[in-house]
Amino acid sequence: MEGDQSDKFLEWKRWVSHHKLQTVGSLWVGLMVANFAFQCTRPVPLQLKLIHSRVYSQFVTVGAVACIGIAEALEPNIKQKKEEDL
């Protein structure tokens, strides 16, 4: 069972490596919606709600991009598999 989970995790990492823009874009949109929903519970003007939601979403998205880069640097065989698929 443990080998099956590691295979699924490797497959997931490979998919993220192949679809970086889709992954980062989906993450940003999801975080933007969630942050805006949270900001709507606070008594601040709409303009500040939008600005705070965007800033928090961008912060986490930059972290996600860094994690993808680190994952590819630490496991170069993911990048090799990507080049073989092309």
From TrEMBL:
Keywords: Membrane, Transmembrane, Transmembrane helix. The keyword Methyltransferase does not apply. It comes from the Eukaryota. Signal peptide: none annotated. Residues 1-83 form the HIG1 domain. InterPro entries: Hypoxia_induced_domain (IPR007667). GO terms for cellular component: mitochondrion. The keyword Coiled coil does not apply. It is found in: Mitochondrion. This is HIG1 domain-containing protein. It comes from Chloropicon primus.
